[in-house]
Amino acid sequence: MQKQQERTLLLRFGALPVLFLLLASQGAHADAGAAADAAADVAAAESNLNDKVEVFTVATEPTDGYARYIRSARIYDVKVTTLGLGEHWKGGDMQHPGGGFKVNLLRKAVAPLKDEQDTIVLFTDSYDVIITAKLEEIVELFKESKAKLLFSAEKFCWPDSSLTDAYPEVEGNASRFLNSGAFIGYAPQVNALLEEAIDDMDDDQLYYTKVFLDEARRAKLGMKLDTQSRLFQNLHGAKNDVKLKVDIESNQGILQNVNFLTTPAIVHGNGLSKVDLNAYGNYLAKTFNGICTVCQEYLLELDEQHLPVISLSVIVPMAVPFFDQFLEGIEKINYPKQNLHLLIYSNVELHDADIKSFVNKHGEKYASAKYTLSTDNLDERQGRQLAFDQAKLRKSDYIFFIDGDAHIDDGEVLRELLKLNKQFVAPLFAKYHELWSNFWGALSEGGFYARSHDYVDIVKRDLIGIFNVPHVTSIYLVRSSVFDVLSFQHSEYDADMAMCESLRKAGVFMFISNQRYFGHLVNADNFDTKVARPDFYTLFSNRYDWTEKYIHPNYSEQLNASTVIEQPCPDVYWMAIVTDAFCDDLVAIMENHGTWSDGSNNDNRLEGGYEAVPTRDIHMKQVGLEVLYLKFLELFVRPLQERVFTGYYHNPPRALMNFMVRYRPDEQPSLRPHHDASTYTINIAMNQVDTDYEGGGCRFLRYNCSVTETKKGWMLMHPGRLTHYHEGLLVTKGTRYIMISFIDP
Ligand SMILES: *[C@@H]1O[C@H](CO)[C@@H](O)[C@H](O)[C@H]1NC(C)=O
Ligand SMILES: *[C@@H]1O[C@H](CO)[C@@H](O)[C@H](O)[C@H]1NC(C)=O
Ligand SMILES: *[C@@H]1O[C@H](CO)[C@@H](O)[C@H](O)[C@H]1NC(C)=O
Ligand SMILES: *[C@@H]1O[C@H](CO)[C@@H](O)[C@H](O)[C@H]1NC(C)=O
């Protein structure tokens, strides 16, 4: 228990332990002091704001980043004027220099304030900025700097690194270079700063840099850089400078600069640090206070009369186990089918037939239903593109992608995602009780997977909320507003990575929600499709789905000591153990193998080569299922044995003989009385008397007691030696299959 708590509290960011108290507020920690001090500072700053402050930002489009910025401003009561909203952006793209447009917009906006000596102007970018403090605190930090004009500082000299040496030196881990993403100053100084002309396409950072590096102008303007991140924190190249913490008092996330023990009020994901900012942004600006508060904001109420039209795009690019259950999951989605356009893309022959019959059976209920099969020879990228093109063609409001390994367990998943009101949102899906999931918390340098400090807690749902993450796969809902920027095309990346990159590039946030348990991923690794009934072979890789599909739904009840277990003959117990699917698949596997033994006493499968009481049978070894079946005995049979034969404890059970017997009138219809070479024997009926065959059953001679009304999927368990001398009764019609194990010989 203690361990569990420590793990919850001590999340990791990079190599640094991070104190995280989002779940439990007890249990103080050495690091807590600084966070508490910071909280006290915030409280102290709640004095009256006497200064006139004008806050400006630039955003031509209301991107997700802009929405995050505006939310953070609202949270801290910062009134912002947005410049350029709705205008065509003329400042180049994010990857290249540009931004003169911002300068020109700001110049126009601050011109009227030119003579207001006491007015303070704060400018910040918006798409990649988060405000984390009230204006009072921001102003106080500005005044403490004794500057008239204070710029944020960063670690890189950009865009012209040849200017490096022109900058004043700084000590230790301070930031030496000007960054144009945020600055604050008195109105006259800001006006003076902006007096020279700049082309919309020219670089704003270079423009301001030149002013700063001109010592005379710098002095005249009282211009300084916030090199110790007292007010501004630029994140690019500063990974080791900052640490996400949790404020003890408020249970809220804060970002601390660990070099200078500051809590910067304005955090800027400059340059390549957008993904880092997104990760911090999940916890900054009061998104959590023990519970996810941001989860309750901006929710969409669904109007049942006017529900969005959604393209349901099922993507099956590889063979997956338990595809029948996957399709059941699709049917489970609680949403009017007339609002759903179904398209199934498959590139797997194994699944073609199931897809066809699914669409034939259910297709009519949907607004439209189409499929492409392996015979159409589309690769995954083309398949996704096709689904996407269809969604656009149908003028869908959303496209909901679901891959063949994503099993929906909660039919409310689509409605719940819609309510979250995001451009892109996914439910958390993970392999059952594993850490493999459908999102990445961070990216490596090459754009591949990297673990984030909160990854494990999100996957295990120790931390519940919605999270902005850099990569999502398997199942996600995309609003039509981003159809224009979403792309599956890339020269190096696969379709998933290409899509995520296209969204990151466009500044579209990918959210993942684990607010409910929505479903899970099956494990398709090493899925052998060459065998008959391949699902049956996946107990080790997919224990959860295997159990769901193959273990009788009433199995567990029988482990409860208060459940009475039937005893049709003395010490012969009768229990539900497997499903019809188990029986049907195993019989099919055996019949597909086809080489039943000849029923003679010579049996070269056995060590001595001799069988005293031969049957027509196939051993599990012969179909590659011996190891799996021993696991089945251990997991499912042994607990029942321990219930009915109290005190006998052998774990794991041993069995050298696990085999299916086939009785039929024209082959071997019965078996003479015998003892089994076992401590106990199990005998599972693989098909149904009176439906599949007539006659048959098992008779225990000592008690003159027969079990003839056997039930498919039910198991007889009885002692093997001495008392339970038994015979196989005559099958008069059809074929009877039973699955036998001699346990602990
Ligand atoms: C700079 O920061 C790193 C990592 O936080 C630290 O190990 C190092 O001692 C710091 N250097 C100085 C000069 O403060
Ligand atoms: C499980 O048990 C319940 C109650 O005993 C019964 O109604 C139900 O039919 C059983 N399920 C199956 C699949 O046999
Ligand atoms: C066992 O069954 C009893 C009676 O049905 C029930 O009250 C009890 O909760 C069950 N125990 C477990 C562990 O399921
Ligand atoms: C065995 O049971 C059958 C019917 O259950 C009965 O007809 C028969 O007489 C019994 N045999 C002996 C030896 O008791």
From TrEMBL:
It catalyses: L-lysyl-[collagen] + 2-oxoglutarate + O2 = (5R)-5-hydroxy-L-lysyl-[collagen] + succinate + CO2. It comes from the Eukaryota. GO terms for molecular function: iron ion binding; L-ascorbic acid binding; procollagen-lysine 5-dioxygenase activity. One of its GO terms (cellular component) is endoplasmic reticulum. Its EC number is 1.14.11.4. Residues 649-745 form the Fe2OG dioxygenase domain. It is found in: Endoplasmic reticulum. Its cofactor is L-ascorbate. Keywords: Dioxygenase, Endoplasmic reticulum, Glycoprotein, Iron, Metal-binding, Oxidoreductase, Signal, Vitamin C. InterPro entries: Collagen_mod_GT25 (IPR050757), GT_PLOD (IPR057589), IPNS-like_FE2OG_OXY (IPR044861), Nucleotide-diphossugar_trans (IPR029044), Oxoglu/Fe-dep_dioxygenase_dom (IPR005123), Pro_4_hyd_alph (IPR006620). This is procollagen-lysine 5-dioxygenase. It comes from Drosophila pseudoobscura pseudoobscura. The gene is Plod.
